[in-house]
Write a structure and sequence with these properties.
The complex is a heterodimer of chains A (324) and B (286).
Chain A lengths: L1 H16 L1 H4 L2 H26 L8 H17 L4 H23 L4 H20 L11 E2 L16 H24 L1 H11 L1 H6 L4 H27 L1 E2 L6 H14 L5 H20 L3 H15 L7 H20 L2
Antiparallel strand pairs in A: 1-2
Helix pairs in contact in A: 1-7, 3-7, 3-10, 3-11, 3-12, 4-5, 4-6, 4-10, 5-10, 7-8, 7-10, 8-10, 11-12, 12-13
Chain B lengths: L1 H31 L6 H19 L2 H29 L1 H23 L15 E4 L2 E4 H23 L1 H11 L1 H6 L4 H27 L5 H16 L4 H21 L4 H15 L11
Antiparallel strand pairs in B: 1-2
Helix pairs in contact in B: 1-5, 1-6, 1-8, 1-9, 1-10, 2-3, 2-4, 2-8, 2-9, 3-4, 3-8, 5-6, 6-8, 9-10, 10-11
The chains are: A mainly alpha (324), B mainly alpha (286).
Chain lengths: 324, 286
């Protein structure tokens, strides 16, 4: 079973890797961002879907890593690789410091604590004056170089493939974690945390693990996004980004991992298309959310089950009718 | 000294508006465990309806009434259409109510345009007068007094009336209340509609101070959610104390440390919730 899951991830990555051959620069860039947002949603699903802790502040980790990269490259003139490592590690350190406090809250309280955390980061970035660039953010982030002649990260195709590679590795790691005993214990905590406590599991520590894994994934994709755009602004810390990530998880089907990835990517593409097409895009997007809840309450990931039931019902009925 | 009085009054004004919005939100949440993220959009919708009525008829009172009725009816429609879906899972609530908020916000932009607007306060309250040695707009003083009155009225309704007793019973234990013959679905419809109407009226009341602009609905919503959770879910007292605390904190922080204005509101929130996860006046929910 586990081998099959990994095979599907690799197969999906292989198919996506062919995209630059088929599409132009526009679609390659769009897909790069779709993978970034899809991957961040997949990471968040460990916390929201698997562990049952809804966070409305996950964008903070995405944005913090971006700012870390931007500060390293533009303010301190570091090598982009060093800046990336700094941005990601600093974000993980912040998550690690905040997690033991945050996981004491549950449900809506946790959601609000994370919202407040995101707003604190956003507030500091917008009011940070010269240092963080304030409302204007920090432009001029150079992309790193792999030092290979055939793989240039400054080209759209090169960066797309690099993003895909990182996303594949990260997805494999997260899927393996989810299937491991630790990952399964997270589901146990979601379903009944008191019983898990009674069974002798350190529930708080496992919540911290889920929190930090989700934050680390967010940080990696935040760094990728900063390199992709060459720019970081307060928009990357806006609570709306957190909402978009949370909605991706819900629309995709909380806990299914692949659902949030698909929904996160699709949502970005749909949004980009709608923004270019009509001024009424928030209305269309809002309607999509409402329809999604009404038609697929279990998310995209439940579509197989829904179809199967639809398909099976007539057959069973037919069988009953034909029975003597 | 002037500075302190002036900022206290500013904080109380913000707190008053926040209380009107948060009280509806907290009771709906306490009653049905439904977090209505479209509450801010109802607030803005009421405000814009009030704007049109104020400009057409010239009457502030009519505008206030129209804003309340329009938002109330819309709230009732949402409640009737989606209650069953909302009760299915908390994730559905976030998705559905945020979707409605996006639709409503964009519809407002469509109907009234993107220009920031302002409702003129009632003619009788347009002056400033001296209180405690500072000159302060009468309209804002009126809002503070109104919040005090509304607080007392709501408290009486909550603690002393039959409807209040029924709602409290439902908040405490919905299953037992149902078994006692209380029609919880009707109570919920009444509470949701009242909360929406209150939000709509606040949109009109707040428009002379905050103005009306797209995006305001989410600024208000975020602060109201913070008030609800900090005050304690389902607690009107908590909503009142929380609103005033957030209002005052906001006023002083903006005046003293403008560069830290978000930090100073949300950092204490984190601290309070970590020390008391049920909020200041809340009890543990099952």
């Amino acid at each position: 079973m586990r081998g099959r899951g990994e095979l599907i991830v690799l197969l999906g990555a292989a198919i996506l890797a062919c995209a630059p051959l088929l599409f132009g620069v526009y679609w390659t860039n769009l897909l790069t961002q779709a993978i970034i947002f899809g991957g961040a949603a997949l990471g968040l699903d460990i916390l929201v879907g698997r562990t049952g802790m809804p966070s409305l502040g996950h964008g903070a980790f995405f944005g913090l890593a971006g700012y870390g990269v931007a500060l390293g490259v533009t303010r301190w003139s570091w090598n982009p690789w060093l800046a990336a490592a700094f941005g990601i590690l600093a974000t993980i350190a912040i998550a690690l410091a905040f997690a033991p406090l945050a996981v004491r809250a549950r449900g809506l309280t946790f959601l609000t604590v994370m919202l407040a955390f995101g707003q604190v980061c956003w507030g500091l970035a917008t009011r940070g004056g010269e240092f963080t660039g304030g409302e204007n953010g920090l432009p001029g982030i150079r992309r790193p170089s792999l030092g290979l002649d055939f793989w240039d990260l400054d080209s759209p195709d090169g960066f797309y493939l690099f993003t895909l590679l990182v996303a594949t590795i990260l997805t494999l790691a997260i899927a393996r974690l989810a299937a491991s005993p630790v990952g399964l214990s997270l589901q146990g905590i979601r379903d009944n945390d008191r019983r898990m406590l009674a069974l002798g599991y350190n529930v708080a520590a496992r919540r911290v693990v889920a929190f930090v894994v989700a934050a680390a994934a967010g940080a990696v994709y935040g760094a990728l996004s900063a390199f992709f755009n060459g720019f970081v602004g307060p928009g990357s810390l806006d609570w709306r980004l957190s909402a978009q990530l949370l909605l991706s998880v819900v629309i995709g089907g909380a806990g299914s991992l692949w659902g949030p990835f698909a929904a996160g990517g699709a949502l970005h593409i749909v949004r980009t298309y709608l923004t270019g097409e009509t001024q009424r895009w928030p209305m269309v997007l809002g309607a999509l959310y409402v329809i999604a809840v009404l038609v697929l309450p279990g998310g995209i990931a439940s579509i197989g089950g829904v179809l199967r039931r639809r398909w099976r019902r007539p057959r069973r009925q037919a069988a009953l009718e034909s029975a003597p | 000294m002037r500075f302190w009085i002036f900022q206290t009054l500013n904080g109380l004004t913000t707190g008053a508006l926040l209380f009107f919005v948060a009280s509806g939100l907290t009771v709906v949440f306490g009653l049905m465990r439904i977090l209505n993220l479209a509450h801010g959009a109802l607030f803005l919708f009421g405000g814009y309806v009030g704007l049109t009525v104020r400009e057409e008829t010239g009457s502030f009172l009519l505008a206030l009434l129209a804003g309340a009725v329009a938002a109330g009816l819309l709230g009732l429609a949402i409640q009737q259409a989606f209650t069953r879906t909302l009760l299915r899972s908390p994730f559905n609530q976030v998705l559905l109510t945020l979707g409605i908020a996006f639709i409503l916000g964009n519809a407002i932009l469509w109907i009234w345009g993107g220009e920031p607007q302002r409702i003129r306060p009632p003619e009788a309250l347009q002056r400033s007068r001296e209180v405690f040695g500072v000159y302060y707009p009468v309209y804002r003083l009126f809002l503070i007094v109104l919040a005090g009155l509304a607080g007392v009225l709501l408290w009486l309704l909550w603690e002393r009336s039959r409807l209040g007793a029924i709602v409290r019973a439902c908040v405490d234990d919905r299953a037992i209340a149902t078994a006692m013959g209380i029609r919880v679905d009707r109570v919920f419809a009444i509470v949701f509609t009242t909360g929406a109407a209150l939000a709509g009226a606040t949109g009109v009341l707040g428009a002379p101070v905050l103005g009306l602009s797209i995006g305001l609905e989410f600024d208000v919503l975020l602060l109201a959610v913070v008030v609800v959770v900090v005050g304690g879910i389902g607690s009107l007292t908590g909503a009142f104390v929380g609103s005033m605390a957030v209002g005052l904190l906001d006023a002083f922080a903006k005046a003293k440390f403008p560069e830290l204005s978000y930090f100073t509101i949300f950092a204490p929130v984190i601290l309070i919730l970590l020390l008391r996860p049920t909020g200041l006046f809340g009890r543990a929910l099952e």
